[in-house]
């Protein structure tokens, strides 16, 4: 990691601008013909097994076409279930071989947070588009290196913000944009989970980069941004830790407050200690609406102050985000969950950590 | 006010300790005989007219026995409705005459925040017990002067925290105390109202001492204290203002976060701009519970993560708090909504304002 990390900043914007643009014509023509882009799953943990691989079966524009893993048993299980050929199976260290594999168009990076840059950049250098789980990475610099690498390769980078495909969230966004209840005044969002076993990578700072805030608090943060359509200008945060052994390396519980330029204020909380708060609420000038639960894979629903329920048929959010990403590639348009979007959240996450550490409100720069 | 304010600090604890203790025996004997203590309403605004005076008719241990006002029309209205005799009607400047009126045991101060000390001290000097609306006053020093004056006079001082008599809140307190869902991890509380007309005293700093935070945010603050049973150790706050004309002198919207010594974290919000958030929620180790609405005169109710509803028959909260205060006097026991309790909240309110002003987390001293 350390070696890779040092290498990335050398790719400055100037260098990239001068670099040759790699045409996506061949990929596009093939994909448009078959209507399905090949997706390689990079990281075969629980999320890939239980959510993403099954979701790929439900997509219209994608198919599971490759595997990247360091765990032979996982590879065997995925191959047996999904029939991925041996020639499309890779280790993390030989992803460059993908360059010769026309079956793979997209690499979906589902590895621990602090490996996202390494795996994304390898995929991009192999000429693949990259869809990466949230958080995009553990620092702004690493996020930028991923954006740069994909831009240099002429490939698209997306961030796995599935909630932006949830019709409940889309309905909430519409309520704000159309000022159905007027301008938002107070936003409230929180997501807390019992993280479970103490021996997992999520509790190791080197791999996770942070704890509850980076993993689930990010949902609350992101929601306040896409709901207001604004970038917060200042954040103030407090941390609390009740189990300093289990949470020796990462944050256990955090609460933070943000002010938006339009005058709205958001207060958010997160925790790794409990399955608890998982809501989203907007109090606007003439009414309010809320989702609770807001961030589940399914079962999200909500209500409005005028008595109207917010409830839509469940859709597979992973299938939806992947189909949209494939369409962005096919239609050569930007993704609403771009790498830049992922970077913006990481910048704010870092400001939240800084505020919690220093006890000072932190202004968030561009 | 300025004159009175300068006078109070001169009453030091040492002076008070040396002062003669005024016996309450006569008052107590009379009251126990009749079972009803005479209450004089000091301030005949909307709260007195629509809530407190009607509530007094429902009490078991009190009766409306006196009026203090500077508005003859209000006095006439109250006299006509409740038959208060002329001899028990006072102006703010001649409350000392109450000393000779055995019909009045308690003065309920319902005037603007920054007049509470003046009116409380006058009532105490006339030998009356004082029940004072929240916030107790607009500074810690003024709160202390009220506590000192009542102690010097040998009279009880209570703060109008009606929610601590709401069976829904009492149920929530029990859920935490008995650890029904384990220890609290994240508390969330907010209360926002559309304050209404721009020409009222609540928007004048000299009379109100603050805006939304002092008036309704205090409910959220207080709730986090009586739910945890702990005092917050540090607070971090942000303010936002969208209407700098209407809210030129006081805070419009605030969000703040507090950490408690047991490790719980609370995030709270308040606003004068909108009728919005009015909830209370505790996410604990093994479940959660919430009230929404939590702070209304009636209609409060809630739910628990185990599916059990929190719903009790409505009671008159003003009658309940007054009956308890009367019983405290009769039984010579302290009130759970003491003046000291009122002071503690004002100290935290000041820390919240300081944090919002300075952009720094503020530690809350004892």
Automatic annotation (TrEMBL), chains A, B:
Q: Which UniProt keywords apply?
A: Oxidoreductase
List, for all copies, the residue spans of the domain called Gfo/Idh/MocA-like oxidoreductase C-terminal: 175-364
Q: Which domain of life is it from?
A: Bacteria
GO MF term list? nucleotide binding; oxidoreductase activity
Alphabetized Pfam families for the sequence: GFO_IDH_MocA, GFO_IDH_MocA_C
Where do the Gfo/Idh/MocA-like oxidoreductase N-terminal domain residues begin and end? 38-161
What is the name attached to this protein's record? Gfo/Idh/MocA family oxidoreductase
């Amino acid at each position: 990691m350390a070696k890779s990390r040092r290498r990335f900043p050398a790719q400055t914007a100037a260098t990239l601008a001068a670099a040759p643009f790699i045409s996506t014509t061949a990929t596009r023509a093939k994909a448009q013909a078959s209507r399905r882009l090949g997706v390689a799953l990079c990281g075969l943990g629980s999320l890939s097994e239980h959510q993403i691989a099954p979701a790929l079966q439900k997509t219209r524009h994608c198919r599971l076409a490759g595997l990247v893993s360091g765990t032979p048993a996982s590879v065997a299980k995925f191959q047996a279930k999904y029939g991925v050929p041996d020639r499309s199976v890779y280790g993390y260290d030989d992803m460059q071989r993908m360059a010769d594999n026309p079956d793979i168009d997209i690499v979906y990076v589902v590895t621990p947070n602090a490996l996202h840059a390494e795996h994304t950049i390898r995929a991009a250098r192999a000429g693949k588009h990259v869809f990466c789980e949230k958080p995009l990475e553990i620092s702004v610099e690493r996020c930028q290196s991923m954006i740069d690498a994909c831009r240099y390769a002429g490939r698209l980078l997306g961030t796995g913000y599935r909630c932006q495909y949830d019709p409940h969230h889309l309905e909430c966004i519409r309520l704000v944009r159309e000022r159905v209840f007027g301008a938002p005044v107070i936003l409230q969002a929180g997501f807390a989970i019992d993280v479970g076993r103490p021996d997992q990578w999520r509790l190791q700072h080197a791999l996770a980069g942070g704890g509850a805030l980076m993993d689930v608090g990010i949902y609350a943060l992101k929601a306040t941004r896409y709901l207001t359509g604004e970038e917060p200008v200042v954040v103030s945060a407090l941390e609390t830790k009740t189990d300093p052994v289990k949470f020796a390396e990462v944050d256990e519980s955090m609460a933070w407050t943000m002010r938006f330029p339009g005058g709205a204020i958001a207060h958010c909380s997160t925790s790794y200690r409990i399955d608890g708060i998982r809501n989203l609420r907007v109090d606007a000038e003439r009414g309010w609406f809320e989702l609770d639960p807001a961030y589940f894979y399914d079962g999200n629903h909500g209500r409005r102050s005028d008595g109207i329920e917010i409830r839509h048929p469940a859709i597979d959010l992973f299938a939806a985000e992947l189909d949209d990403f494939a369409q962005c590639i096919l239609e050569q348009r930007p993704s609403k969950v771009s790498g830049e979007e992922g970077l913006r959240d990481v910048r704010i996450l870092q400001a939240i950590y800084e505020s919690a550490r220093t006890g000072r409100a932190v202004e968030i720069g561009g």
